[in-house]
Design brief:
The structure is a single chain. The chain has a domain of 165 residues: 3-Layer(aba) Sandwich (D-Maltodextrin-Binding Protein, domain 2), CATH 3.40.190. It is globular and about 65 Å long. It is of the alpha/beta class. It has 14 helices and eleven strands. Strand 6, helix 7 and strand 7 form a beta-alpha-beta unit. The longest helix has 33 residues. Strands 7-6-8-5-9-11 form a six-stranded mixed sheet, covered by helices on one side.
């Protein structure tokens, strides 16, 4: 009898599983992969090419920075997926062109492709900063959703396109550290008169708060800190900062990194070089860029976790109080609103990011409270990030 019941039960499960409408939804399917239809159309005409291409990639990075490795990862992925038909040779800063000359070099066709932190091109258009890091702005998850699902990638490509370039998101290494400093600053008043190295919009925001700010190149930061030319500096994430040795010459790291909740890069390609590629290689570039975007975050964040432990052996991590963080949020908001009023491109991009944050807020709230802290920390009440 027992075996009969088990047999009937299994038969019922199989019947329900195989029935086409056994678990029919009450509503239509929620969400579709829009690319699927595009691919079906492409497959009717696309053919594997045989022509080979050799490209030059320029960048602001030296070989010692993780950003260089991200660019190399992309080039390797393209070469592998294309069977060597598209071979991209990397040139670090100064090898082919100067670090800050890479944008113009690719735009003019002196090189085929570049890798960057878009905020470097602030002088060309303020909106470039929005695709790099926004003070009190999107985190890494937010950038990925906004870029790929909320039109951010298309806005990025449109902006770069004005300079004879085709752009793709090109890697994200996570939240940056705050300021390496020899002055302990936890209140907003502590930043007044402080001599700080930073870049992007944070440079102007800190200036408005009374700091004295300089956008020193990365290679000059260590010496400036060591000689006391500046009191504090931010550069990048833990894994990128650690090899630079800032912890050898400073006492504190002032957290959190309100200036860059995420650090986003881009690949930019000369339009003429891109147009010469057959369609199959264009698809390989697109997919390799997306793979690099995903891989870079996992790789870099794992390294960040290791680097932070090493940094804590030498420097004290201090956190700004809640009022100071709120004041930074207010100052950042007011500054960006001023940019939006002055620059239509900034308004377009930042309105889109702000709308995404508003649309995502309900889900962010409802999913909260189960941040995966170590068990001992969680049961003591540390539930939120």
């Amino acid at each position: 009898m027992k075996k009969l019941k088990m047999f009937i039960g299994l038969a019922l499960i199989l019947t329900l599983a195989l029935a086409p409408n056994a678990f029919a939804a009450k509503r239509e399917k929620f969400g579709t992969d829009k690319r699927h239809e595009e691919v079906k159309k492409e497959l009717r005409t696309i053919k594997a090419s045989t022509e080979k291409f050799r490209w030059k990639m320029v960048m602001p990075w030296s070989k010692g920075l993780l950003f260089y490795d991200i660019a190399q990862h992309f080039a390797d992925s393209v070469k592998l997926a294309s069977g060597g038909r598209l071979d991209i040779k990397l040139f670090s800063a100064g090898e082919l062109v100067g670090a800050m000359e890479s944008f113009d070099a690719v735009s003019k066709g002196q090189a085929d492709i570049g890798h960057d932190w878009p905020g470097y091109w602030k002088g060309k258009n303020e909106a470039f900063v929005a695709f790099a890091s926004v003070p009190m702005g999107l985190d890494t998850e937010g950038y990925n959703i906004w870029l790929y699902e909320r039109g951010g990638k298309e806005m990025m490509n449109e902006l770069y396109g004005r300079y004879n370039l085709v752009a793709f998101p090109g890697g994200n290494v996570g939240q940056e550290l705050g300021l390496f400093s020899n002055k302990k600053a936890t209140k907003i008043a502590d930043f007044k008169g402080m001599r700080v190295r930073t870049a992007g919009w944070y440079m102007d925001i800190l200036t408005n708060l009374g700091a004295s700010v300089s956008p020193l190149p990365g290679g000059e930061v260590y010496l400036a800190l060591e000689r006391g030319v500046i009191d504090a500096a931010e550069f990048s994430t833990p894994a990128i900062d650690y090899p630079m040795g800032f912890d050898d010459i400073t006492k504190y790291v002032i957290q959190p990194g309100v200036h860059q909740p995420s650090c986003q890069s881009a690949f930019f390609i000369n339009k003429d070089s891109y147009a010469k590629l057959p369609d199959d290689l264009k698809w390989i570039i697109k997919i390799a860029a997306e793979e690099t975007q995903q891989w870079s975050t996992a790789w870099a964040e794992n390294l960040n976790a290791e680097a932070i432990k090493l940094l804590k052996k030498k420097v004290e991590f201090v956190r700004m109080d809640d009022d100071a963080i709120n004041q930074f949020a207010i100052a950042s908001h007011n500054y960006i609103e001023g940019l939006k009023a002055k620059y239509p491109d900034v308004k377009k991009v930042m309105d889109s990011q702000d709308q995404f944050k508003a649309d995502f807020a309900d889900w962010r709230k409802e999913r909260g409270g189960i941040t995966p802290w170590p068990y001992e920390q969680f049961i003591k009440g540390q539930h939120e990030q």
